Amino acid sequence: MVTIVAKEAPQASELQYIVRALRLAESFAARAPAHDRDASFPFENFADLSREGLLALTVPAALGGVGAGAGEAARVLGIIGRADPSTALVLSMHYIQHLVMARSTRWPGRLSRKLAKETVEGVALINALRVEPELGSPARGGLPTTIARRTETGWRLSGRKIYSTGAPILKWYAVWAKTDELETRVGIFLVPAGLPGTRIEETWDHLGLRASGSHTVIFDDVVFPLDYEIDVRKPDDWKVPDFTQATVHAIFIAAIYDGIARAARDWLVTFLKERVPANLGAPLATLPRFQEVVGGIETRLAVNARLIESFAADFDDGFQLSAIESNIVKLTVTNNAVKAVEDALSLTSNHGLSRTNPLERHYRDVLCGRVHTPQDDATRISAGRLALGV
Fold first, then answer.
1. For the segment 317-346, what is each residue's pLDDT rounded down to a tens digit?
2. What letter does residue 53 receive in the DSSP assignment?
3. DSSP characters over 155-188
C-alpha cells in the first residue's frame, strides 16, 4: 500500500490528531453506504469530529484551536476522504475558512475570535456560498445576482445560492454578494444561519458525494448587522483571487479525491487476493496483467502523495507559490484519482459495478473531483497562456 511519507517526523501533537482521525474513519466508513443510498446528511460524523477536537484543527492555537497548517489538515482530510468523502468535503470547506480568517487582514478580529470560540466549543461550521443558477462558477467571471442592501438597521440580503455544501449543518454562511450602492461593490458578507427569511431547498440529488448536503440556500430579505461586512470591494479588485483560499482549496480537494482512490485501491487488492476463478485455480492477484494494472494504480497514488505533501509543506513554510501551480496540482491529483478508480473497475467486471460492493460508489464519488473550481479546461488554458505570453 502506498502511504504519504512526511519529510520530517510528525510532532506528538500532530500525531494525536492523525490517530483520532483514523479512529473516527472506521465508523465513518461503516455509515457511508447508508448515507450515500439515502442521500442523508451525516450529522453524527460532525458530532464525533467536534468531540475529538478535529473541527478546530485549523483554528489558531491562540484562539483555542489546534493551529494546524495545510499539511496536517490535508492528511486528516485524506483519511476522512478515504472513509466518507462527503464528510471530508464539508470539513475541508470549514478548514479553508478558518485558515483564511487566520491569515487575512480583512476579517474583523472580533468575528474571527467569535467563530473560533464557537468551533472550539461545539459544532459550528462555516462555508462560503458563492455559486448561483445564473452566474455559474464565480471563477468564470461575472457579478452575483445576490444583493445586499444597506439600511439603517442592517444589511438586507436577497438571493439564491446553489451547491451550498454542508447546508444542513452550517451555522455561518460567507455569502458572495453585490451591493446596491451607486458604485457597486462585491464581496463577502457573514450571515448567521437560520435567520428569518432564510430557507434551504433540498435540491442536492447527485451522482456522487450524495451525503454532502450541497443544497440550495435562499435568502429573502434577510437582515443581519452592518458590521458583518467582511471583504467587499470594487469588482476589478477581485481579479486576483485570494491566495490562501485558492491554494489550500487546491490542496484539500486533491487530498479528498486521492483518499477516494485509495479506498478503491484497498478494496481492489482484497478482491484480487480473494477471488479464485474455477478455471484459474488461483487468486486473480497471481496474474501478471492484473499485477501490472495494480502497479499503475500504485504509481499514480505515489505521485499524488508527493504532490500533496510537498505542495502543502511549501505553503506552510511560506514559500511563494503560484495560482497556476496550485491549480495544476489539483488537476493532476484528481485526474490520477479518477484513472486509478477506472483501472480498478477494469479488473473487476460486474463485481466492481455492483451496489453490493463499494467500488461503484467510489467511482461515482471520484468523478466529482473534476467539477471543483478550477475545472481542467480553465487550468490548462491559463497555463498555456502563461507559457505563450498571451
1. 999 888 899 999 999 999 999 999 999 999
2. T
3. EEEEEEEEEETTTTTEEEEEEEEEE-SSS--EEE
CA geometry: angle at 275 spanning 273 and 276, to 5°?
A: 105
CA–CA dist 75, 240 (Å, integer): 28
The dihedral built from the CA positions of residue 76, 87, 95 and 62, taken in this order, carries a sign that is negative
> Model pTM greater than 0.85?
yes
243-388 CATH choice from 1.20.1250.20, 3.90.550.10, 1.20.140.10, 3.40.50.11310:
1.20.140.10
Query: What fold characterizes domain 128-238?
Result: Butyryl-CoA Dehydrogenase, subunit A; domain 2 (2.40.110)
Question: Please, are residues 66 and 59 in contact by the beta-carbon 8 Å criterion?
Answer: yes
Dist. CA 302–CA 290, nearest whole Å: 18
Closest Cα partner for 25 from 235, 260, 192, 215?
A: 260
Tally of residues, the chain: 390
Reading the block at residue 79, the C-alpha cell is 483519511
Count CB atoms within 10 A of the CB of residue 16: 14
- Quick: pLDDT tens for 174-193: 999 999 999 999 999 999 99
End-to-end Cα spacing for the chain: 43
378's grid cell = 480553465
Cis ω before 283 (30° cut-off from 0): no
